[in-house]
Write a structure and sequence with these properties.
Helices cover 34% and strands 20% of the residues. The chain has 474 residues and is of the alpha/beta class. Strands 1, 2, 3, 4, 5, 14, 15, 16 and 17 form a nine-stranded mixed β-sheet that branches. Strands 6-7-8-9-10-11-12-13 form an eight-stranded parallel β-sheet. A hairpin with a 7-residue loop joins strand 1 and strand 2. Helix 3 runs parallel beside helix 4, helix 11 packs antiparallel against helix 12 and helix 12 crosses helix 14.
Length: 474
């Protein structure tokens, strides 16, 4: 829902702040890629060769990070003053069911996530999912997330797929759109890949869509939601098409993923993403590490829905095995799509647990969770050469965080500040692929009022149709 007509005017207002307050300042902008010099910030590059630069510049040229260092000469660039700000790569959310973003508050006491999903998933029409994905994209941009894996596990019709992709076209964020099944379809019926092929040909014939920002994948149900013959058929169809595959691997007994068996079948590797997998055995983790199979870890969801044991133990064992761990939010009715909060939860719970194999393992540190939320996420989605760190030659997905806000003042160690104290309200500026989508603390590339109004309309219609506890008050 890009509001291009008023974007330049809005930016001009949003940027009217002084450097002494730590708010970026510049003249008006537009949604095109330009040449920018982000000047004088503390740069958390997440690049192993660069580390943290206490004061540095980042040069952005036509969507590319053209330079990182002190006192860069870019006299023809627009200056973005990053004084008293932390500059970092955009976050990567590797598992977000965006079709249900507008259903964030459908759950209640005695009416948990799965009950709410069963009551509502069949009621979303194409326009509802379009509005929901736009809402999710705006929320992500606001929180400094520039790449998302849209795990579309309720793709009810070709019109629904088109509606989600229209939202991505207008959303200006980097994404994988993983075409999934129809929620609540019979367990013994395989997915119909006819429309996956249509979408691939119509939108992704060049490999990616929407100026290269979006690529295609497949989200299969896994054995938690399908019978074994149907799951095997789904996997065979996805593998034959050479598409990246995403699988829910389970948070509760029984253990439904046998990594050694999946390896024998040729299903594992860097293009297969497993999420949750709280039930994994040490042998499973070793197979994942050996095959380069990444993990998407949704910390709130693992604690709320996992009944396979303490998720802290599983996470520390994944680290010991050498599995690439990325972070994600799952569904908005379980957790916000906020990587600051996800990082903070992982840091606070990532400690050894006495009486388990994790007791002798090192605790999770600030630098590590930042890498999980950025570079590891990019690698998990096959985008490690594209985004995830502030590295010359990568695309310009760059976030500026104010440090003079009351919840971050008086400053200190920058990695600690980001993990321990920051939140989306501290995000001042967001570049997505070199385009400014948030500036001066305001979303400037989205018609937020309309997005919220439309989401409310769809939410009320769905709640009315579902009835029961969801019935809106008269």
């Amino acid at each position: 829902m890009i509001n291009r007509r008023t974007l330049t005017k809005t930016l001009g207002v949003a940027l009217a702040a002084t450097a002494t307050t730590g708010v970026a300042s510049a003249e008006g902008e537009d949604p095109q890629r330009r040449r920018y010099l982000v000047r004088g910030g503390a740069v958390v590059t997440v690049d192993p060769a660069l580390g943290v630069l206490p004061r540095a510049d980042v040069l952005i040229d036509d969507g590319v990070i053209a330079g990182v260092g002190r006192d860069l000469d870019a006299r023809d660039a627009k200056v973005v003053d990053a004084t008293d700000m932390i500059v970092l790569p955009g976050f990567v959310n590797t598992h977000f069911h965006m079709w249900s973003a507008l259903g964030r508050n459908f759950v209640a006491d005695g009416f948990p996530y799965f009950a709410a999903k069963r009551a509502t998933s069949t009621l979303y029409d194409a326009e509802d999912v379009h509005r929901s994905v736009l809402l999710g994209l705006a929320e992500l941009a606001n929180a400094g997330v520039t790449t998302v894996h849209n795990w579309s596990n309720n793709t009810r019709s070709p019109a629904h797929a088109d509606a989600e992709l229209r939202a991505h076209r207008d959303g200006l964020l980097r994404a994988r759109f993983s075409y999934g099944h129809v929620d609540q379809m019979p367990r013994d019926v395989p997915m119909d890949f006819t429309d996956v092929d249509r979408v691939r040909q119509q939108y992704f014939s060049a490999g990616s869509a929407f100026d290269g920002l979006v690529h295609l994948g497949v989200a299969v149900r896994g054995l938690s939601q399908s019978a074994e013959p149907a799951f095997f058929a789904d996997m065979d169809a996805a593998v034959r098409r050479g598409l990246p595959i995403a699988i829910h691997a389970g948070q509760a007994p029984p253990r439904i993923v046998d990594a050694a068996d999946y390896e024998r079948r040729g299903w594992l590797g860097p293009r297969t993403l497993l999420t949750h997998y709280v039930t994994a055995l040490d042998d499973d983790m070793e197979v994942m590490a050996r095959t380069g199979t990444p993990l998407s870890w949704s910390p709130h969801s693992e604690f709320r829905l996992g009944t396979a044991g303490d998720p802290r133990d599983a996470l520390l064992r994944f680290r010991r095995a050498g599995v690439t761990v990325s972070l994600s939010s799952d569904a908005t009715s379980i957790a916000p799509s906020d990587m600051f909060e996800a990082m903070r939860l992982v840091w606070n719970t990532g400690i050894p647990w006495q009486g388990t194999p994790s007791a002798v393992l090192p605790e999770v540190g600030f630098r590590e969770v930042l890498r999980m939320a950025t570079l590891n996420g990019a690698r998990a989605l096959g985008l490690g050469d594209v985004t995830g760190s502030i590295t010359a030659g990568k695309r310009a997905d760059v976030v500026l965080v104010r440090t003079n806000d009351v919840n971050l003042a008086p400053g200190g160690l920058v990695e600690t500040t980001l993990v321990q104290a920051a939140n989306p309200a501290n995000v001042d500026t967001v570049f997505s692929d070199g385009r400014i989508v948030k500036r001066g603390g305001r979303l400037v590339a989205y018609d937020v009022d309309r997005i919220v109004r439309d989401a409310r309309t769809s939410s009320l219609r769905i709640r009315t149709s579902a009835g029961g506890i969801l019935t809106p008050p008269s």
